[in-house]
């Protein structure tokens, strides 16, 4: 009798619990486990470079520790990555801006992927943040194919005739062992996609060099080609979020209509930093959040920064026409658990091989982030940045205004009033109750500046009029839910609104009327044409006139259309800086020597007698609640997910 893997493990008393598909596979069946990492953002080590301390909640080294057991549970397995790996923390910036990528050097994330045996990957939008030469240099060390079907260097008549920046897909020829222990060939097609919005978000790097195709359009052209080349199953590495079910050309979050494309068998998603299966996507059309299905097809989103390992288990049956899927199960397996008391319990220890792969870069990054550049005589924190004028946002605005004032000197725009738009990046939300800026008075190091401004954006300035300025602020005011006068403890913050779209514009003063509905929806479309939340908008103590002209300092993401803000469009750009916003903040602090960040209270809520609202923030905010400017904040108590709740009496 042939000794199968199943009977061997049973007879030897091995303690490995095989997945049911592996345990019961018949002679013509095989278990294939597909594993996903996504949105690693250079988090190789379990280390928070902004806080300069170890952490149990992040790190590819921790995710990697799951892989041994996960592989052992499976009859056959393949490891894939879903993009956004080159940028996202100070290690990424250190490699891009300080060390560089010289001939023969490999990127620490690529070293980690190679150590893990990643078998295919795709690009995320953040892979383009440092420019195409850096991207190509980093990918040169990859030990696996990296695919992307909708980033194009030359457009063809149809997408399958495009010249793509990278191969649009790869077909992995593998041997798969069936339930009787027999090995058979299988052809696994892997195709990748990235949001077309990279042309907006990284316009200064990409304009004139690449174009993008709509994700669904590219899939409909390339998947039949993969099938014609003999792909038994097709896996979509979709670095795009889960959004509306109806397809719209050029949509950013296209995972749901992508799953409807004929021939795609499995969807790995990312980009949105959430988890599927799980409650994050309950109620979404065509999505089974509990089972991990989109249009009935197995689908997984594996969190971010290494928080989860995504698993799709397939029971395959072999017939005359090759392999087909007879069953599927999906899972997002976490590296840690958060208790009701906010405690963190690590589920794994770090994989030594991954730590070794990035150890030198880690030590160099620690030295990089610890360099002092100046001092602050007041704390910088973002615990209340979504409910009141905030010092961590204020210093970013001041630095941007200082820089653009110099850049406008001697130009046709010299003398126009300069405003500055900045948003809180670390404001809890999907990042969790510890995801806030918190810089103590004293030395300010590069790690602190990176904490204030997470992304390597570059400075831009746009020219807009007063009417457009008001609309820009209306878009930002969508962060808040509508509040009925007289309500008690009504929820204040819209959980679907991203904090990086809450632009505070310094240089003007204004108030926000919460009794009005949001004029713009989450995607930036006009939702309530008659609504106007922004009132008492003034400049220099006088009401802003619709025709009044302003220069607004911002970043390349916003100025190129990121977030869909009125007036923040390429045709309104009057200055494109070579400097990153972070570098500008560093230079501002260096010039000042000591900064005294203090919120000036230029915006507030319209009073509503007899009305109160509540919001959640990190528990660390308890040290600063009494110092918040322009609003009285009352503690309520602990909230779900490790947050702390406060009340505002409007």
TrEMBL record:
<feature type="domain" description="5'-Nucleotidase C-terminal">
    <location>
        <begin position="436"/>
        <end position="566"/>
    </location>
</feature>
<dbReference type="Pfam" id="PF02872">
    <property type="entry name" value="5_nucleotid_C"/>
</dbReference>
<dbReference type="GO" id="GO:0000166">
    <property type="term" value="F:nucleotide binding"/>
</dbReference>
<dbReference type="InterPro" id="IPR006179">
    <property type="entry name" value="5_nucleotidase/apyrase"/>
</dbReference>
<keyword id="KW-0547">Nucleotide-binding</keyword>
<dbReference type="GO" id="GO:0016787">
    <property type="term" value="F:hydrolase activity"/>
</dbReference>
<feature type="signal peptide">
    <location>
        <begin position="1"/>
        <end position="25"/>
    </location>
</feature>
<dbReference type="InterPro" id="IPR008334">
    <property type="entry name" value="5'-Nucleotdase_C"/>
</dbReference>
<dbReference type="InterPro" id="IPR041827">
    <property type="entry name" value="CpdB_N"/>
</dbReference>
<dbReference type="InterPro" id="IPR029052">
    <property type="entry name" value="Metallo-depent_PP-like"/>
</dbReference>
<dbReference type="GO" id="GO:0009166">
    <property type="term" value="P:nucleotide catabolic process"/>
</dbReference>
<dbReference type="InterPro" id="IPR006311">
    <property type="entry name" value="TAT_signal"/>
</dbReference>
<keyword id="KW-0732">Signal</keyword>
<feature type="domain" description="Calcineurin-like phosphoesterase">
    <location>
        <begin position="33"/>
        <end position="274"/>
    </location>
</feature>
<comment type="similarity">
    <text>Belongs to the 5'-nucleotidase family.</text>
</comment>
<dbReference type="InterPro" id="IPR036907">
    <property type="entry name" value="5'-Nucleotdase_C_sf"/>
</dbReference>
<dbReference type="GO" id="GO:0030288">
    <property type="term" value="C:outer membrane-bounded periplasmic space"/>
</dbReference>
<dbReference type="GO" id="GO:0046872">
    <property type="term" value="F:metal ion binding"/>
</dbReference>
<keyword id="KW-0479">Metal-binding</keyword>
<protein>
    <submittedName>
        <fullName>Bifunctional 2',3'-cyclic-nucleotide 2'-phosphodiesterase/3'-nucleotidase</fullName>
    </submittedName>
</protein>
<dbReference type="Pfam" id="PF00149">
    <property type="entry name" value="Metallophos"/>
</dbReference>
<dbReference type="InterPro" id="IPR004843">
    <property type="entry name" value="Calcineurin-like_PHP"/>
</dbReference>
<keyword id="KW-0378">Hydrolase</keyword>
